[in-house]
Design goal:
130 residues; mainly beta; seven-stranded antiparallel sheet; binds copper (II) ion
Length: 130
Amino acid sequence: MRSPLFVVLVVGMSMFLAACGGAATQTPTATAAPATITLNTNPNPPTAGDVELLFTVVDDQGQPVSGADFDVIADHTDMSGMTMHGKATDQGNGSYAIMTNFSMAGNWMLTVQVRKEALDFKQDIDLDIK
Ligand SMILES: [Cu+2]
């Protein structure tokens, strides 16, 4: 089990990366985290309706993690009980994609979990649907 503090630190970093707009600024840096997951969306910024979520996973050496099981939970945190769940599919080179439909704008929380061999890493990512 990971400590809550550890998770909070990783979430902070992912929000910073997302705030930068994400796409081309993939600069892997060595951190204490076993993996780093970054999110991109299509469209960007995401709007209510169909949104493709594009994740990139790198390990603690900045190397892409491919062939993992990639679980996605999306929770509309403005309400209770509005949750979606699915698996993102491996696109190669550490990229994973899933097509979603956000039926409501507002604050959503993505909880993503990557599992491959010894790696079992969960990360929360805030998502503001316009
Ligand atoms: Cu809702």
